[in-house]
Amino acid sequence: MKFNLTNKDLQSKARAGIVSTDHGDILTPIFMPVGTAGTVKAVHQRELKDDIKAHIILGNTYHLYLRPGLKIIEKAGGLHKFNGWDKPILTDSGGYQVYSLSGTRKIKEEGVVFQSHIDGSRHTFSPEYVMDIERTIGADIMMAFDECTPYPCEYDYAKKSLDITHRWLDRCIERYKTTECPYGYSQTLFPIVQGSVYKDLRIKSAEYIASKNMGGNAIGGLSVGEPAEMMYEMTELVCDILPADKPRYLMGVGTPTNILECIALGIDMFDCVMPTRNGRNGMLFTSQGIINIKNEKWKEDLSPIDENGTSYVDSFYSKAYLRHLFSSNEILGLQIASIHNLAFYVWLVGEARKHIIEGDFLSWKNKMVKQVSTRL
RNA sequence: GGGGAGGUACCAGAGCGGUCAAAUGGGGCAGACUGUAAAUCUGUUGGCGCAGCCUUCGGAGGUUCGAAUCCUCCUCUCCCCA
């Protein structure tokens, strides 16, 4: 994997670049749709590629390991072959599940003992094992195994957690360096900065991660319930420390506003379940603002879903029709909302990139933040 | 014509003398959702001058300190027999 930083905004810390992988290029800033179980929920690969124009999608180590399991993925020749996505894939390590499934796991120095949310069976994820799993899944970008701390989080716990995440990182790197992709292309490991909302911990972590000199770096443990201002503060602090010549990935963020603000702070890559999950729950993000398509006000509105939208569903279907689909619990509604939202997210970061290159990013961003956060 | 069952909030349906403005489900309305245990979850659903009051359980009258609940008549619906 290579990163070519092509443009720097003069009025903010925003940048544009190209991440090159063996499965193709990723133009940054980029939004990466989340495909936890090897599928971006409710969206076909063809729509993902041709309509939404996603450059890269996510998969999840924990979920794929439990189901369908490594055997079948290996037999298929990796996740790309298994799900038919021949562009780049990034796998989250399961560190987020250490946080979200906290009721069914135990953290030890060796690793994390999990209980499967599916059948209750016990499994152990060590940093080494997670690297092996991610090798088998075959993602172009593999995430280090970390602990995503909750919010709020006591300083002492955050510090302890950070230290273990760092020790796990060393073990991840060691395993990463002594193994290779079973399918013949290259895979890159991204370490993850933690430290909750504590400046000194974030600085310490960012410096540690920077010193590892990996192909790209991630910021985790944010957007877990802390105020947005706190998230921006931590993001900026960390971005200023992480090397400029490596892509920076802010994990799990966020709303369109969050993304625009964090691009301005120097983030290159984002992922979030919001466009898909909230879409399935009736929330549409548009350049003019946020729509809850289930609301009665759209009942007789036969105008297009999004007049300015780039996806074919935006002009092909009306708001009233989409509302009808949601009211009737029709599966197509989930598909349309997911396609629309993903296309909007990808369009939004693409526009950001365009304005960074053209040099008027900041004014465009400020105008856009107001628009996209409006409630329609 | 004879016999029986029943009419409860938007719908279905519990309640059968006071703790009932009325369970529960559906529907309606609104909100939440940030490296996905989510086609999920939460709230609300008679009115108002809202810690209280007013009007509601087919209609009218009655019994009672007190009625959606008991009695009388009326009315409508459904089922069985002829």
The largest beta-sheet arranges its strands as 4-15-14-13-12
The main sheet comes to: 5 strands, parallel
Strand content is 15-25%
Oligomer: single chain
Give Rg in angstroms.
Answer: 20 Å
Class per helix and strand makeup: alpha/beta
User: How confident overall, as mean pLDDT?
Assistant: 97
Total strands: the figure is 17
Query: What is the overall number of helices?
Result: 15
Structural shape: globular
**What's the end-to-end separation, in Å?**
42 Å
Q: Which ranges are low-confidence, i.e. pLDDT below 50, for 5 or more consecutive residues? A: none
Helix content: 40-55%
Q: Main attributes?
A:
376 residues; 43% helix; globular; single chain; five-stranded parallel β-sheet; RNA-binding
Short overview:
The protein has 376 residues and is α/β, with parallel strands linked by helices. 43% of the residues lie in helices and 18% in strands.
SSE topology:
Elements: E1 2-8, E2 15-21, E3 24-28, E4 30-33, H1 45-51, E5 57-60, H2 61-66, H3 70-76, H4 79-83, E6 89-92, H5 95-100, E7 105-107, E8 112-115, E9 122-125, H6 127-137, E10 141-143, H7 155-177, E11 188-190, E12 192-193, H8 199-211, E13 217-219, H9 228-239, E14 248-250, H10 256-264, E15 269-272, H11 274-280, E16 283-286, E17 289-292, H12 312-316, H13 319-327, H14 331-358, H15 361-372
Parallel strand pairs: 4-15, 5-6, 6-10, 10-11, 12-13, 13-14, 14-15
Antiparallel strand pairs: 1-2, 2-3, 7-8, 8-9, 16-17
Helix pairs in contact: 6-7, 7-8, 8-9, 10-14, 10-15, 11-14, 13-14, 14-15
The chain binds one RNA strand of 82 nucleotides through residues 32, 34-37, 41-42, 58, 60, 63, 90, 92-97, 99-101, 104, 116-118, 143, 146, 148, 192, 218, 220-225, 231, 249-255, 258, 271-274, 276-278, 280-281, 283, 292, 294-296, 326, 329-331, 333-334.
